Amino acid sequence: MRFGHFDDERREYVIDRPDTPLPWINYLGTESYFGIISNTAGGYSFYRDARLRRLTRYRYNNAPFDFGGRYLYLRDAGSGEYWSPTWQPTQTELDEYECRHGLSYTQIASGYKGIKAKVSYFVPLGETLEVWRLQLTNERESAAELSVFSSVEFALWDAQDDATNYQRNFNTGQVEVEDGVIYHKTEYRERRDHFAYFACSEPLAGFDTQREAFLGPYRAWDRPIAVERGTSSDSVAHGWQPHGSHHVRITLEPGESREIGFVLGYWENPKDAKFDPPGSQTINKQTVRPVIERWLQQETVDAGFAALRANWDRLLGTLQVHTPDGDTNRMVNIWNAYQNMVTFNMSRSTSGFETGIGRGMGFRDSNQDLLGFVHMIPERARERILDIAATQLSTGGAYHQYQPLTKRGNNDIGSGFNDDPLWLILGVAAYLKESGDLSILDAPVPYDNEAGSEQPLYDHLQRSLQYTLDRLGPHGLPLIGRADWNDCLNLNCFSDTPGEPFQTTENATGGVAESVFIAGQFVLAAKELAGIAQCVGKPHQEYLDAAEKMAGTIAEHGWDGAWFRRAYDFYGNVIGSASNDEGQIFVEPQGMCIMGGVGVEDGLAVKALASVRERLATPHGVVLQQPAYSSYRLELGEISSYPPGYKENAGIFCHTNPWIMIAEAIVGNGDAAFDYYRRILPSAREAISEVHRCEPYVYAQMIAGKDAPTHGEAKNSWLTGTAAYNFTAISQWILGIRPELTGLRVDPVIPSDWPGFTAVRQFRGATYRISVTRGAVRALSVDGQDFDPAGVLPLAPEGSVVEVNLTVS
Ligand code: BGC
Ligand code: IFM
Fold first, then answer.
1. Closest ligand 2 atom, CA of 365?
2. Which of these, 660, 673, 790, 687, lies nearest to 735 by C-alpha position?
């Protein structure tokens, strides 16, 4: 069952009923002012940091699930009836409803008793504000006397404090209203720098800034007293809950249309501003007023919206493909790329499942997210790499998370996730392959942000590799530490002494549990580093030797007969083996070892992939392990805390599926790779939206596995490494358009029933127009000249167009 459809032309998903299985959200903002918005206008806004600079209030895990947002009410003076043109919060049964989620904008249109309304929300480039544009049309045969009420609830900036510290924050709220603009100035008193404002383009009939005055005692947003009555009370908030509501009265003749603009924004007075008289509690509006005036003009809004769309054209233009599969085209060309950019901006901070309060950026996650956006914004990827590397410890280890504002490693969480450092090598390799900017390797980068500890980035990569070699366990495999990619496989963090408390993951690094996953990742990273070293004329053989040795150890201790094992626990017992009663086979080492090239030559890879298909594949994707753990196991940790089929306990952890797609491509099996790709492809699952439940336009972290009663149901959409890795799998391995250090490679491994495909790829300043067709033998021509079909395409001059024709058999 569908709840809407894709409009590929306009790059929108069109939702045609408000009661989607879950709130289907979108993101506003691309630079510093951001928000989430649901298909019924729920959500909130913030400036840079969703915890510390939260503009509007939102209550997670609410009933209804999505409540609180950018709300409008329309009231008909004739009948006294009122409704919300975005359905929430009044939930009036609308005659028409349509929500269009586009790239960084959302438009919700509806019709009720002859009054058409369309509300468009977006954040203009270069601004710290959002525009709401309300377009009203009277389709009745008589004039309509209407009232429009707006409504936002201001958060008192620190969202954590806002939700917990009521003894204080019921007293601190302050507002100011001048010339129809509502200023929310809580905190201005002490800091005198930032405030929020909410403005309207029309003369006001009234306003409210005290929530209870607007809603009325014992009422909620579905029937505010001000709206019911048809008049605001011009309330001014002193403490309690500052709120922003404008009241506008208009008369629309039959057939007449009108536009009303609202601007909700964040403002920081310039640091050196001298214009506040000492002790003044009045907001200084000198610098913000012209900005407000400008964005209340329709022409400014039109131009701002056009600029936003043009920016997305430019970003998405980096890769556009045309394949025989429509779902693939729209995901690669639009939605997967868009989701990658959202993970760049949001990391794991703000979504329907992340509250914006936990603000850490993952060392591992950030390096992987980079794979998905590096081709669109290489210069931002460079900055990101330098930020991440500066948090690395001098041991080569890594803080598991760092703070986006201070860019310091997070001491509360600490380090000891032993896969972390290797991701830096993989992230840097991706950047170098895309940009060719080898100079980044010489950039001085501190360890743990300590001044004076700077070393070239290349030194960081060496230490990352050495970190693993310094920590090998009894079988010669890498020690797992607190966990590897699978955060929940905590093999060193328990106590088997009755009555002793469990160890926390913080003191779990002393154990001897080993990870086959990290071993595979090491082989991959060592080969990548060897390639980089060779490229800049540094010794590289030692890395290749280390990779080979590790591959040998995997063959000896990591191979189970039909698949790669997962780990050895604290006691040296094997995990992920046919000899286990549960958790016999895990997906992660199959993907990662094969991506590292382990078992590819000797047939182990093909065997492992057959086992994946036989034991782990479901119609909804590949589950993480089998059999699921039926009960909690001290020696395994969090993984077994989940009921069977959910999350790391045999859920379909979508991040791991592309590793299997890549592995299938590596062994030349395009049918299998693409089959797995489509199983979890959001657009291809649109028709079963009542089962999948999350948005059909973006990936979710997890789909419930076959052991779960809700098999096929997705959770945790948007902010997941799934986005970057699926994009890599389809674009670089299945379609095979793969940046390498020396140039672009085109090496597709496509399904056997595809006649071919075309693509346009911007790469290092040139445009590659690629056409892949079927033929008797593999042949490649570049600009009409025959070329080695196994070769890397030559670099082309800036601005040039390269015609690439590949025939595959
Ligand atoms: C979750 C994992 C997640 C981890 C983040 C755990 O509680 O279950 O999925 O990766 O926290 O560190
Ligand atoms: O690898 C992790 C990731 O870092 C955070 N989300 C869950 C994944 C698997 O545990």
1. 4
2. 673
Protein residue with its CA nearest to atom 9 in ligand 2: 486
Say yes or no: CB of residue 365 within 6 Å of ligand 1.
Answer: no
**pLDDT (mean) for 221-238:** 98
Q: How far apart are CA 321 and CA 317, in angstroms?
A: 10
Where in the chain do CATH 2.60.420.10 domains reside?
A: 738-808
Q: Which two tokens stand for residue 221?
A: 């947003």
pLDDT (tens digit, 9 = 90+) per residue, 644-658? 999 999 999 999 999
Which helix (H) or strand (E) covers residue 97, if one does? strand 96-102
User: Which residue's CA lies nearest to atom 11 of ligand 1?
Assistant: 487
**Ligand 1 near 487 CB (within 6 A):** yes
Ligand nearest to the CA of 343: 2
E strands present in 373-501? 401-402, 444-445, 455-456
Q: Is the CB of 133 under 6 A from ligand 1?
A: no
* Residue of the CA atom closest to atom 12 of ligand 1: 487
Residue-wise pLDDT for 595-615, tens only, equals 999 999 999 999 999 999 999
Could you give the angle at the alpha carbon of 766 between the alpha carbons of 763 and 771, nearest 5°? 80
CA of 487 to the centre of ligand 1 (A): 6
413 lines ligand 1 (CB under 6 A): no
**Gap from CA of 488 to ligand 1 centroid (Å):** 7
CB burial of 429-440 (b: ≥16 within 10 Å; e: otherwise) equals bbbbbbbbeeeb
Q: Would the CB of 364 count as within 6 Å of ligand 1? A: no
Q: Which of 340, 339, 357, 338 is nearest to 349 (CA)?
A: 357
**Residue 235: strand pairing partners:** 208
- Which residues on adjacent β-strands are paired with residue 12? 7
Average pLDDT over residues 552-578: 97
Does pTM surpass 0.85? Answer: yes
pLDDT at 360: 83
Q: What is the CATH number of domain 471-676?
A: 1.50.10.10
Q: Are β-strands 714-717 and 737-740 bridged in parallel, bridged antiparallel, or unpaired?
A: unpaired
Give me the pLDDT at residue 492, please.
Answer: 87
Model confidence pLDDT, tens digit, residues 474-492: 999 999 999 999 999 999 8
3-state helix, strand, coil in the chain (%, to 5): 30, 30, 45
Q: Write out pLDDT tens, residues 147-181.
A: 999 999 999 999 999 999 999 999 999 999 999 99
CATH code 2.70.98.40 region(s) in the chain: 4-313
- Catalytic residue numbers? 487
Ligand 2 neighbours, Cβ below 6 Å, are 362, 364-365, 485-488, 648
| 4-313 classified as CATH 2.30.130.30 | no
Q: Judge if the beta carbon of residue 488 lies within 6 A of ligand 1.
A: yes
- Rounded to the nearest angstrom, the distance between the alpha carbon of 144 and the centre of ligand 1 is 54
Per-residue pLDDT of 367-395, as tens digits, reads 999 999 999 999 999 999 999 999 999 99
Between the CA of 413 and the centroid of ligand 2 the distance, in Å, is 14
> In 3D, which of 508, 362, 378 has the Cα closest to residue 424?
362
Q: From the CA of 362, which ligand is nearest?
A: 2
Span(s) in the chain for CATH 1.50.10.10: 471-676
Assigned CATH class of 738-808: mainly beta
Q: Which residue is closest in CA terms to ligand 1's atom 5?
A: 487
Q: Are the beta carbons of 717 and 352 closer than 8 angstroms?
A: yes
Tokens found for residue 561:
């007969």
Beta strands in 179-268 (DSSP E): 181-184, 194-200, 206-210, 242-252, 257-268
Query: How far does the centroid of ligand 1 lie from the alpha carbon of residue 630, in Å?
Result: 19
Write the CA distances from 309 to 25, 106, 303, 342, 375, integer angstroms.
19, 12, 10, 16, 19
Residue 55 near residue 155 (C-beta atoms within 8 A)? yes
CA dist 567 and 574 (Å) reads 6
